[in-house]
User: What shape does this take?
Amino acid sequence: MKKKQKRPSWQARLAQSHKLPPAPPADTFWADFRAQARDLPRQAPVTVPPAARRAWAEPHWWPVTSRPWAAVAACAALLLALLGWWQWPAPAPGLAAAPTSSQVLEVAARSGAFFILRDEQHQGMILWLVADERPALNGG
Amino acid sequence: MNELLDRARAGDLDAFAALFEPLRGKLRAVAWRLVGPADAEDIVMDTFLKAWQALPGFDGRSALATWLYRIARNRALDWRRRQQARPAESFDAGDYEDHDPRTVDHQAESPAEAAARADDQAWVRRALDQLPQLHRQIVLLHYVDGLRYHEIAAALDLPQGTVMSRLFHARRKLRALLTPDPREEPVA
Assistant: This one.
């Protein structure tokens, strides 16, 4: 009985077929580089204090924090959205009473709520925003 | 690392070589995938020379590797513009013809094994040729050359999310093309 041969995966085949040839030795390469670089003009150095350089190089957990204007713009957009939300009218009763819809997600806040509903009849999703006319949902 | 960087900035060629030698392999891969084998080594040297000139202005906002790959990409674009000015063949046409894979690491194979391998490689190459050029570059840089998503993004000037989604689609297509081998009978 012949021994079953293991076929290489497609990634191994790819790596084998497109592998680069060996690089020139480091000594040769950098000697060549030194010979060419020696007489090249160089840019003027930046005058940034080392402490600031280190701060820039540190990764941020959220890219927006490194861009103050983006954070300010996001806050402004959020404020406008909240104001607009407050003034929106309640949804039409017919939509709210759609018997074929089932609730997927509900997020409630003091000033209103939004729902995501699955509409079984029309095979779609409904995003439903509700603005409460009272100051608080459980204000009595 | 920081000491080497400061010394290289100040004009120390040895420090520059020590600092950038670990990046040479990946930079070379980027150059190969961007311009093809004929001019890749020139692009590598050109990139390091440009980096040497610009290093005093390197402000540290990005990683050194990312900065270097961006320089390489710009040098490759310059190379392409020069190529387009000439009525020569494009990178796609030239691709890997100048590179003989037998020189890589296959000295001790029999003629039959060599023929089978050449056949297999031609098949893989045909599958890869069915991908768009950008997908091909991303696949090779990731799977063959070992670059990470953010490194590929810097080398190709793409958002990292674009690199990830292109790689996903390319991988799905390649897997479909390469997994079932229609030329081979199953070995009992």
